[in-house]
Every structure is written in structure tokens, then in C-alpha cells.
């Protein structure tokens, strides 16, 4: 657990550095003067759509790498390991199919988006380079996780990508990039750039080998690999569609679609701050989960499951209530365009969704690395069955609030099903009474802080509310010792600071 904890903390630090840069980018996008709401919305739409392309184009190769890496590592030398060559080759074939489909169905896309989001139609072809970058990076990221290099991928994905965006914004502000047309075209190449950086790094470090001879491991497990990829592919498509479907619906259905995508994306991006440690813990624990299932170490699986749940729930509760206190005030104080205040109601439900999702731990990864990975498809299908119609109907009824409510309902039911499955099959369960205490402490600290400083505005209000809330929440968590990982972290910090 110490290895997972250490890498998770480092990765979380990297992720939050990325979010700080991302917040700076959002400030420039939304301050006014440089970009319109529709232009900012288009960058978000590019990113979301490229993720969907990745889900289709990779043909489950990241899951194949994560699941079978221990088998290749234990039975083959590096020079004879054909796993990565297979994964990258299949991914390129998959993306080629996606590209052909994009050309064939272009007329349909134009018909659906031309009325409310003409910007998307204008730059339709430029989504594909970003999609290709997402596909290649996803495979290399899974491989890096498997060789226990999660910090590097976190840096490239969370920090370097946003640094590229910052540079583009600065060049645009200085008119070195003369117009938005050139800006968005260069932006579409940023994910290809970080994929290339990761590939070169692994190549230089001699941690990547491309063997084009079919190995004995591939021949031995071919049927299981194909079965895994077929089921997980369907499940991953279902999952990723559910994640970005709200942006697609807002752009296609609501009037002034791209501008509303921008407003919605502010709320959605802020909830990403809540979700950041989950990505770090997943990256750090995935290789340990694969090994634990291979060795049938159920005690380790339960330990990782419980600790991921309580640690993520404590953090999610803290960040959700902290941002709830300051959301409106931050937009007003920072001089962001007032129309972005309309995203507050969406943030309430999107933030609750993240608290639920993080509080249930890394159940997706536990199921995905087990022999019951077929359940990914079943639970994913349920999620899609709930989310798609709910998002469409509630968007028509409640505008951008609708997709947020749909996410909360769907993700809650989705995680409940997975918790029940893991308990019934393996007697794995994430919660204890400390889980409830974490949420109640967050709520109590929120109420006390809100009434203490409800009439204090500006930067002073932001500072005082944040400080009091963090003191109340942190003191209660430490006093009640809600997480078994808290003491080792505190001791490490004290040691480093020589206290």
C-alpha cells in the first residue's frame, strides 16, 4: 500500500498542477475580449468528441494491455514481447475505421448540428487529429501504468496538454496566431504532440519494444484476449458515451448550443478538480490490482478497495463543499462574464455525482481486472439505458441543468449496482461508518462557514470562507482518524520538514 499511496500522492500533485494551469486557461477563455463563448465551447466540444473517438478507435487495447501485461512480463523477454506492437497496430486500424465512418456520415452530422452549433460543422474535419492523439496516448498510457510509470502519464495528460493550450492562448493574445481559425487547427494537434513525447521517452529509456513476431503468450491467450476485448469494448463505448453525451445533446438540441456548452463546461471542469485524485489512484493501483487477481490475493483487493473509497470520499466531500461555498463569488470577483453564473445549478448536481463516484472507490478497475470483466458491459449498458434518454428529455425540459440531473441519477444507480455485484461475488465492500462521517463533517463545516461569512465578499470573502472550512473539516478528519492512510502521510510530511 505504501507504493500506491506514494505514487497516488505524487500523481495527485501533478494533476492539481495541471488544474491550476487549466483554471488559468479557463480564465482567459471566459474573461471576455479574447474568445467568445462559442469559441471556448468549441474547444471543449473538440476534447469531448476526441474522447469518444478514442473509445471507439482503440478497440479495447488499453484494457488488453492492463489485463494481460503480467502474463507477458512473466513469460517473455522484453525483446520478444509483442503486446505493444499488437495494441498500437490494432488501434491504428480502429481509428482508420472511425475516420472512414466520419466521412460517410458527415452529412448526417451537419444536419444535426448546423442549426444550433454551426462552428462544429465548420471545423468538423479537425476533430480527427485530436482523436488520433487520444487513441495513441491511451494505449501508451495503459502500458506506462503497467510498468509503474503513472506520474509521467499524469504529467503529460494533466499538465503538458494544458501548457500547450496556455502557449496557444498567449500566442493568440499577442496576435502571433492571427485568428481563431488557425488557433483551433493547432489546438487539434496538441494530443498528438503529447502522445509523441510519451513514445519518444519510453523509447529513449529502453522501456518500449515493438516485436512484430507473434509470441507464445499471444497464441496461448488469443481466445481470452479476443473475448475480453469484445466485451470490454462494448462496455467502454457505453461508459465514454455516457460521459460526453451531455455536451453532444447541449450542442445539438439547445439554442446557441456552443455557448451553452461553454457555460456547462465551467461547472463540469470544476468537478474535475474533485475527481482528480481518482485518476491518480487508478493510475497507481491498476498494476497492483492485476497482480492481486492473478495471485488471488483477496485481502489485498479488499484493502485497496476500502482505502480508495474512504480516501477519495474524504477528499471529494472536502472539495465539493469548498467549491459550493465559493462558486458564485469566484466568478463575480474574478470578473468572469456573468453568463457563466448560470452554470451554478448544474455544478450542484455534477459535484454530487463526483462525490458518489469517488466515494464508491475504484470498483470499475477491480471488476475490469477480474475474471468477471464481462459485467462491465452489463453495468455499462444499464448506465447508457438510463443516461441517454434522461439527458435528452431533461435537457429539453430544464436546459443545461437537465444533463447534470441525468448524470447524478444515472451514475448513482450505476455505482450501486457495481457495489452490490462486488459484495455478492467476492465479499468486497468499500464502506464503513467513517464513510458517513466524512460526508456529515463536510456538510456541517459548510453550514457553519456559510453563515459565518455570508455577508463578506470579494477576495477577503473567498479567503476567509476557504480557510475556516478547511480548518473545521481538516481538524475533524484528523481528530476522528477517518483514514488509515492519514497517519503515514502526516508522519512523512513531518519527517521531510524535520518537525
TrEMBL record:
It is found in: Cell membrane. It is a multi-pass membrane protein. The lineage of its organism: Bacteria, Pseudomonadati, Bacteroidota, Chitinophagia, Chitinophagales. Keywords: Cell membrane, Membrane, Transmembrane, Transmembrane helix. This is Lipopolysaccharide biosynthesis protein. The keyword Hydrolase does not apply. It comes from Terrimonas ginsenosidimutans. InterPro entries: Poly_Biosynth_Transport. The keyword Aminoacyl-tRNA synthetase does not apply. The chain crosses the membrane at residues 9-30, 50-72, 84-106, 126-147, 159-177, 183-204, 225-242, 262-289, 310-328, 340-360, 372-394, 400-423, 435-453, 459-480.
